[in-house]
Design a protein that fits this description.
This protein has about 425 residues and is mostly beta strands. The chain is about 10% helix and about 45% strand. The protein has 2 helices and 33 strands. Strand 6 and strand 7 form a beta hairpin. Helix 1 packs antiparallel against helix 2. The longest helix is centred in the N-terminal third of the chain and has 20 residues. It is globular. The N and C termini lie close together (about 10 Å).
């Protein structure tokens, strides 16, 4: 083997190596920013707007920030609070006072009812607010704070959700599942199986309702017909998330697994995290699934359960404190001390079609609004913000697998001609 042959062999081998390596694009969970709560308060209950522009956390004090950090405020109690999915409105209940606040921290209206609240919900565009107090009364308000319909008396409420069409208000109580109109008229009720449901999700067209609690998951039509009910997990479900069409139902469980079901309730796959899975999220099309385990590990998975990337927070991830943007590229996670913003880099960009929904909210012309209290919310900016450097994914090499084939052919020719 002469010197020239050895040189050609090395060149061809090197070309082959870089073409194979370069054709792979790395997927990473790149850190974008971190937030620490002021004093000894804690964050929990993470939410992110569908477009990923606004982030919300409840806890001892609620906290709101834009993804790029231009908007950042907090400071009032956030134990019973939520954000509209468009990111423009926050609803918080402090004792017997319900407040609606815009994304910059300006109070729009508040209402005092005389009894402490235990659950609140706001429609995706902020035009409808529902709250339940400790006595079991459900109350609803329009976008400008007017009472909508009559108050409805029910048993103790665990959770409330509003359908994307705003035609249904789903209430999970200690005794049953109840579905109301926005005017608080009962549409249907189910207590056949005993109510264990703590998690509620609607399909984007409002035709399907998914419920979960304890070890059980169920599916209903908007009119109350049961599609299916199944006991899925080995231990209690800690969190649930659904894709837009409910074809991807994601469960985090105390059995240490991420469970993924299809629309018919069949288990598609499970991913063993090894620790309690305290938080789960999914993109609108189901292509990206993210889970947070008790030990602080954050897993990004594809639709088939393959690991895309993982990272780790500094401490225990809080229950139901993980959220994913609609396109799956922005992830918010909260541990014991910090809120983290991650960007999924290197995953193919996903575009999705908006699902049209028809708003059937009826204006109320006969009720008298509760007088507005004019005291504005005191906002306190976050005291510890860490802006992390922007990270880009490993760029895809311009060298393709085709080039690898060419390199192999060239290497073969060189060897053949020198033998």
């Amino acid at each position: 083997m002469n010197k020239r042959f050895r040189i050609n062999l090395v060149i061809a081998g090197f070309l082959l190596m870089i073409s194979i390596i370069g054709s792979v694009t790395a997927v990473t969970l790149a850190p974008s920013w971190q937030e620490r709560p002021p004093d000894d308060s804690t964050f929990s209950g993470a939410m992110i707007s569908t477009d990923g522009s606004m982030v919300f956390a409840s806890g001892n004090q609620l906290f709101v920030r834009s993804w790029n950090g231009d908007t950042s405020w907090g400071g009032i109690s956030g134990t019973v609070a939520t954000m509209s999915t468009d990111g423009n409105y926050i609803v918080s209940a402090v004792n017997d006072n319900v407040r609606k606040i815009n994304k910059t921290g300006t109070e729009i209206w508040n209402r005092i009812t005389g009894s402490p609240f235990r659950a609140v919900a706001v429609s995706g565009d902020g035009s409808l607010v529902i709250a339940a107090d400790n006595r079991g009364y459900l109350r609803s308000w329009t976008i400008d704070g007017k009472n909508l319909g009559v108050d409805n008396d029910t048993d103790q409420v665990k959770r409330i959700d509003i359908s994307p069409s705003q035609s249904l208000v789903v209430v999970s109580t200690e005794e049953s599942l109840k579905v109301f109109s926005p005017e608080m008229n009962l549409i249907w009720e189910n207590n056949t199986f005993g109510n264990l449901d703590s998690f509620i999700a609607f399909s984007a067209d409002s035709s399907t309702l998914i419920l979960a609690g304890e070890k059980r998951v169920s599916s209903y039509t908007a009119t109350g017909s049961l599609n299916w009910v199944k006991e899925v997990t080995k231990d209690a479900i800690i969190d649930m998330a659904c894709s837009d069409d409910c074809s991807t139902i994601v469960l985090g469980s105390q059995d240490g697994n991420v469970w993924v079901l299809n629309k018919e309730g069949q288990v598609r796959w499970k991913y063993p995290a090894g620790e309690w899975v305290n938080g789960v999220g999914v993109s609108r099309d189901g292509s990206v699934i993210v889970a947070g385990a008790l030990d602080g590990t954050v897993y990004a998975l594809d639709k088939d359960g393959n690991l895309l990337a993982k990272t780790k927070t500094d401490s225990v991830i809080q229950p139901r404190s993980l959220a994913v943007s609609g396109d799956g590229t922005r992830i918010v996670v909260i541990d014991e001390h910090t809120m983290y913003g991650y960007h999924l880099v290197g995953f193919p960009e996903v575009t999705y079609k908006e699902t049209p929904v028809q708003t059937t909210l009826c204006p109320c012309t006969t009720t008298t609004p509760v007088p507005v209290k004019t005291t504005l919310t005191t906002t306190v900016p976050s005291t510890i913000t860490t802006k992390l450097p922007e990270t880009t994914g490993t760029p895809e090499s311009s060298l393709t697998p085709f080039l690898a084939v060419v390199a192999l052919a060239g290497l073969y020719v060189v060897i053949w001609r020198n033998n």
